[in-house]
Each structure stands twice: as C-alpha cells, then as structure tokens.
Amino acid sequence: MSDRRIRIGMMSFAHMHAYSYAVCLQQMPDVEIAGIWHEDAAQGEALAREFAVPFISDVERFLDAGLDGVIICSANAHHRRDVERAAGRVRAILCEKPIAATLEDGRAIIERCRQTDTRLQIAFPVRFHPVFEQLKRLLDSGAAGRILAAECTNHGSMPGGWFVDRALSGGGAVIDHTVHVVDLLRWFWGAEVQEVYAEIGDSLLHPDLGIDDSGMLSFALANGVYATLDTSWSRPAAYPTWGDVKIEVIGDGGVLYADMSRQHISVSSQQSGKTQWRDWGGNMDLGLMRDFVAMVRQGHEPSITGEDGLAALEVALAAYRSAERGEPVRLPLTG
C-alpha cells in the first residue's frame, strides 16, 4: 500500500471539524478524498463542489467506492449507526469525539470494529497540538516533580444546531468539552479518573437553550492527581476564535502552564468583520490526519483507541450523574 495514494471517504459533515479535516487531507500529497456522503444531499453536493470531489448520495455506493478508510463526523447519536455501516467495508475508521452519546453505543462501536477487524481511532486532535505535545514531554521528563493537581479550562462558542438537541448530542457543553480534557489527562499520566464531582448549569449563559452550557467539574485520578475543569459555551460571536483550552499543572517541583490559543497573531480585517486570531504554530487537525493516514497505510494499531474514547465519555456522563445527584460519583459507572 505504500506505493499508492490512500483513498479516504468523508462520512457526514454534521460536525464542524469535518471541514478542517477535509482541508488537511487535501494538503497531503499521498491522500485523496475519494468521496463525500452527507445526510443532506443539497449540502453534500455543495461540499463536493467546494472540495472538487464526488458526492455519493447512497451510503452503500459510498462504502463500495474502494475506500481505505472513512472519517465519520455525524451527530453523536449517529456514530454507532455509521460505524456499524462502515466496519468491515473499510480497513480503518476515524470517529469524531465523543465516541457516542451513550456507553451502550460506545461499547457496541468497539465490539463491531473488533468483530470485523476494523481499526478504530477516535478524533482527539488536541493531543497533536504542539503546546500539549511539549507539555507531555515536560511531564514525562519530571520537570515539575511529583504532580499534585491540574487546573483546566475548555471554553467555546455555543454551536447551535444538533449540538443543543439532547437526543442527537447526548448533552451540551459538558459532553462536548469534557472528553477533550479528560483524554489529555489520561494521556499525560496513563491514569484513569476514579471519581467525579460536578455542578452543571442548564441555559445559564443562553436563556431557554434547554441544555447545559456551563459546568465546573472536579476529578480524582488513580495516580493521586486532582484536577478541575471549567467548561462552557461562553464565548460570544465576536470572540476572535472558537474558544480556548488551557491547563496549569502543579507539582512539588514547579508549575507548568499550557495555553493552546497563545500561538497566534491578531488579524484585523473589514472582510471578516472582526479581529481574528490566526495560528502560527502547528496544525493539530493536520497532525491528527497524518496520524490516521499513517495507521491506514502502515497497518499499525491506532494511537487513540475506542477504549480511550469510551473512558472519556464515561467521565462526562459521570459528571451529569453527579450534578443530578448533588454528590461525587465513582467510576466505573453502574446502572
């Protein structure tokens, strides 16, 4: 396979990350987007024209198009449906986060891929941001000594659409943002979250939204590290970028601080209508695409597994249970 181009299919553009992933794939000389399937045919045809690739309205014909892998960016509740369609028809699947809206669906996704010998990777691109790659290296080197705690934020703008439809999303800002940070914490130390306490605000920032748009979470990890997460859809439309991810790690030998949005220049333009931040650092989505394509080409195991996705989802769902009960919740979840 090393001597030919890798054929990737884009399976739904419901999640906004799909657009960036497609742009990144077209920057890679050894890759082609072999087709787009999208639930809305008119939108799918427009996307296909923009990227100059075929639009295939029938999902069965899409999956029969000789694809090496697919990238699934449908609504959270549709991930199981789409993975089960694709597994066994392609060698590898990249599934947008969270892995699913429920643990039952997440487990079914993993099992279906196991049964069909399909490699499953979960889309956690923040691992590939140079700021957090450097933080990981510093933590591995012991630069901060014994780690005691981590203070994290993940703020964004309210996305609207299916993200605020609980039946399709499984939850609001908490499920949307918690999984990214929990994946980083697990990646940093290889330790599972054992207990979660959360206070969650429904329609706190956006009246009548009908779903959670803010949360304050506390985690106890198996290695003795305590972590907090301030998460929300609090960034207004005029904010220069979609949001931020920040982590401050406190150890007995020092403090490490990482801010994903610091690698930028400010661009003010009448064309855009507002000041924007343009990254000058590495492209985390491009890093994720390169990692996924390397897995497809070389046949190695995924760097971010279905089990990683399931563990991050379980912490987010435990936060909802904690907020409902008003008490800490132990993991793994039961019932």
Overview of this structure, please?
It is built from ten helices and 14 strands. The chain folds into two domains: 6-123, Rossmann fold (3-Layer(aba) Sandwich); 127-282 and 313-330, Dihydrodipicolinate Reductase, domain 2 (2-Layer Sandwich). Helices cover 34% and strands 27% of the residues. With 335 residues, the chain is an alpha/beta fold. The radius of gyration is 20 Å and the shape is globular. A seven-stranded mixed sheet has the order 11-10-6-9-8-7-14. It has a five-stranded parallel sheet with strand order 2-1-3-4-5, with helices on both faces. Strands 12-13 form a two-stranded antiparallel sheet. The model has no long low-confidence stretch (mean pLDDT 94).
The total number of structural domains is 2
Distance between the termini: 45 Å
Radius of gyration: 20 Å
Give me the count of strands.
14
CATH superfamily of the largest domain: Dihydrodipicolinate Reductase, domain 2
State the share of residues found in helices, binned by percent: 25-40%
Q: The CATH topology of the largest domain, please?
A: Dihydrodipicolinate Reductase, domain 2
Query: What is the 3D form?
Result: globular
Question: How would you classify the helix and strand content by structural class?
Answer: alpha/beta
CATH architecture of the largest domain: 2-Layer Sandwich
Oligomerization category of the chains in this entry = single chain
Question: CATH top level of the largest domain?
Answer: Alpha Beta
Topology as a string of helices (H) and strands (E): EHEHHEHEHEHEHHEEEEEEEHHE
Question: Helical segment tally?
Answer: 10
Numbering strands along the chain, what is their spatial order in the largest sheet? 11-10-6-9-8-7-14
Biggest pleated-sheet summary: 7 strands, mixed
Which stretches of 5+ consecutive residues score pLDDT under 50?
none
Beta-strand proportion: 25-35%
